[in-house]
Amino acid sequence: MKGGLTLLRESLPLIKPSEKNAANYILAHPAEVVKLSVQELAGKSGSSEAAVIRLCKSIGVTGYRELKLKIAGDLQNESGNKYAFGEIKPNDTVAHLMEAIAEKHTQSISQTMQVNEAVAIEQAVSMISRARKIDFYGVGASYLVAQDGEQKFGRIGKWCTAYSDAHQQLASAANLTYGDVAFAISYSGETEQLLPVIKQAKEAGATTIALTKLGPNRLQELADIQLFTVAKEARIRSAATSSRIVQMYLMDIIYTAVAGRDYEHTIDALEKSRQAIQQAFQTEQK
């Protein structure tokens, strides 16, 4: 049972002021907190027992005991990490960057795996497998992941789109129907362009999937199926790189699971795609 510290970090900007003292104390002293009672944590953090209980509810855990179990799992997992999440340092050597970024991405993927329930991914796989049409939505770096989804699923015969223009996204969402899937990708879960698109898709009868960071956000609240990523935000591009890596990791899992459900069709579709591309380029080269 892991993900407590990650959940707190991702939820911190949205936690109520009355609960932040406890949240900040937990993040600063996680090893101590797993040994503290609610009363002791309230006293040490300058908060109240009620605030600690509300904090647990705010971040989506059933109670203080569950939060401590999650934190204990985090501490055990992090003990082997050579590099903590942090800002990119000035004048880092290439050799150090190679090792540090590999470790950072490995941590992000590992933590993303821990915070996602297999049942939620299974639900997404089932809906996409049966979908008449799949719309992928994203903005900025997340749009690259939407394009990746369109490219992957298109090659196995799925009808899908990945528009970047807000008007096209809305028009496509309005024409979805029951049995279709609207898949929105946003690290923050607060991308203004995507919120009306998912609302429109939901009103049209489509199943909505949100891939966002862990913690409360508006896009997650709108979606039927919620999937989560864990990636540390930083000033120098680490958010765009780490979040994109874990978003694509989850997209790969879903794609592979969907492809495996109808293996014979998948192989046939991939072979047709390969032959079409090969023949086209061979023709151009002659």
Automatic annotation (TrEMBL):
One of its GO terms (molecular function) is carbohydrate derivative binding. Keywords: DNA-binding, Transcription, Transcription regulation. The keyword DNA-binding applies. GO terms for biological process: carbohydrate derivative metabolic process. InterPro entries: Homeodomain-like_sf, HTH_RpiR, RpiR-like, RpiR-like_SIS, SIS_dom, SIS_dom_sf, WH-like_DNA-bd_sf. It comes from Terribacillus saccharophilus. The keyword Ligase does not apply. This is RpiR family transcriptional regulator. Residues 124-264 form the SIS domain. Residues 2-78 form the HTH rpiR-type domain.
